[in-house]
Amino acid sequence: MCGIVGAVLTQGSVLEGLIEGLRVLEYRGYDSAGVALGLEGGVAIRRRAGRIEKLEAALGESPPADSQIGIGHTRWATHGPPTDANAHPHTDGGERLALVHNGIIENHGELRAELEAEGVAFKSDTDTEALAHLLGRELDNGAPTLAEAMRRALSRVHGYYAVAAMRFGEQRELVCARQGPPICVGVTPEGAFLGSDVLALIPHTREIVFLDDGDVCELAPGHLRVTRLDGTEVERASQHVSWEEADAGKGVYPHYMLKEIHEQPDVLARTAFSRIDEERGDVLLGHEELGDGGWSDALLRDVSRVQVAACGTALHAGYIARYLIEGLARVPVDADYASEFRYRDPVLMPDTLALAISQSGETADTLAAQRLAREKGCTPAAICNVAGSTLVRESDAVVLTNAGPEIGVASTKAFVAQVIAAYLLAVRMGRARGVIDQARGLELVRDLRLLRPSLERLLSEEHVSEIQAVAARHVEAKGFLFLGRGINYPVALEGALKLKEISYMHAEGYPAGEMKHGPIALIEPGMSTVVVNSRGGVADKVRSNVEQVRARGGQVICVGSDPESLDLADEAIVVPESSEWLSPVLNVIPLQLLSYEIARLRGCDIDKPRNLAKSVTVE
Ligand code: M6R
What we know:
Elements: E1 3-9, H1 15-25, E2 32-39, E3 42-49, H2 52-61, E4 69-75, E5 90-91, E6 97-105, H3 108-117, H4 128-140, H5 146-154, E7 159-167, E8 173-179, E9 184-188, E10 191-195, E11 207-210, E12 215-220, E13 223-228, E14 233-234, E15 239-240, H6 256-262, H7 264-272, E16 276-277, E17 282-283, H8 297-302, E18 305-310, H9 312-329, E19 333-337, H10 338-341, E20 352-358, H11 364-375, E21 379-384, H12 390-393, E22 397-400, H13 413-432, H14 438-458, H15 461-474, E23 479-484, H16 489-503, E24 507-511, E25 527-532, H17 539-551, E26 555-560, H18 563-568, E27 571-574, H19 583-601
Parallel strand pairs: 18-19, 18-20, 20-21, 21-22, 23-24, 23-25, 25-26, 26-27
Antiparallel strand pairs: 1-4, 1-10, 2-3, 2-4, 5-6, 6-7, 7-8, 8-12, 9-10, 9-11, 11-15, 12-13, 13-14, 16-17
The site of 5-amino-5-deoxy-1-O-phosphono-D-mannitol (M6R) has 16 residues, from helix 9 and helix 16.
């Protein structure tokens, strides 16, 4: 969950590029930051607890000399609190090398005891420092290169890591390695660059090599060499990444989250429109970067059930996928937290499609759930936003969501893209199995096109100011209950998650039908209840929840297209009508805006909520 950057150049100074890279990666962890620059006579290290601005201030106070080789890190603390001493980079005792790390070295206690017994003095509480000293020991023991020291040292390490190390002084070397969390590399004639995320590399090159677990990579300008831990050299093909540099900026918006909320009409178009086949009343699941995506008719026909595994917002999209795939393709679906699924020894049949859903494609629990399903003979498939991610590379069939980089920690556009991708999959599956005929297929794909103007309306100034007014009236609420039923029940879960993660207000999402089994006890004046209800099969059931909450003195904000519920509620946020299957795509927008506005009024750090990081690459 930390960000890593590194570079070696033929000429000029590496520092500015490292800081730019760290800024782009700060969303991955933001409790401390640091850089190490290799100099002829040694190293310049600057590191500070706090945001990157603190690091920049430290660099301003004592500017280092120009250097052509360096590494940088933005930290999300796991071992040791966020202090200057625990911030990365860490060095070995002999001060020949510096190291940054993302992940967890599980046997760091044992390694630390062993090194201390040999006289090594540790300067931090981190697990990372043990690896820096191990590398130093391997150099002392005659490892001819930093890469060889890395291979030998890593054979002693248990855990998950992406690491980058730099040797300074006369022998300038830059090396990175991976076991678990991602790391990618790219070269140009002028330099070689590494990063824990493609976003850090695209200002330099779009031809990116994604390292595999167990790879160690040596970098020099214009040159990469990848070996396995036993020293065997391997070829890793580069992949072209189409994301634009501007995609990683905030544009005219004050926060990434708001920018990403406003991108959603375009996300709909990118995820769905080029895949619609109106002639056949069908969709194509492939993508220019992945061909047909692995979705053969045979696979879609022969599957007898679908098991979804995901975390957080992606799981909420997975719950919606359950309604879509069961409802449209008539295939049974189960959906579970990846962190529960992987440890409950699930019973899985080989003709199951194991569908992992993830924005990043790097979430540790989701990857583990997917690997378990593969071991049990299921076909691993994914809905994912990052073409070169581990999840995509480990899946036999993939729908890429094409949402573009999502940087706000609170997921918004990725959710909408995941729901749309699940809809496409349900339609394709129904067509392949003959459950959806051409005429029905045509209706279903046309419904997608109708969403765009409705999304635009929901994001209009008029609508946003309406939500700002609702937010102002509820910013002091004792708490929030979000209720929804059927395909909009997961939207209620998502509304509650969004609000709590960025505004720190207590919020719970519930299936509306469960209200009388417990949560109704919470209702009293001052408690706000958001009821999501659109026209459809369960609208009248949800209507009675609105009445029950109001009868007990609770305040109801109704979001949706069901006119009677909107009339009954204290406040109404009208959402344009759509097909019921696609109503979550519209209903979630006011909930995203409501949490954004409440968090803004409460003065919260919207893009970097406390204790959270964008990508959870450790357990
Ligand atoms: O990258 P992923 O989609 O696998 O991430 C899953 C969750 O960590 C993520 O959705 C998280 O819940 C977000 N912060 C929600 O806004």
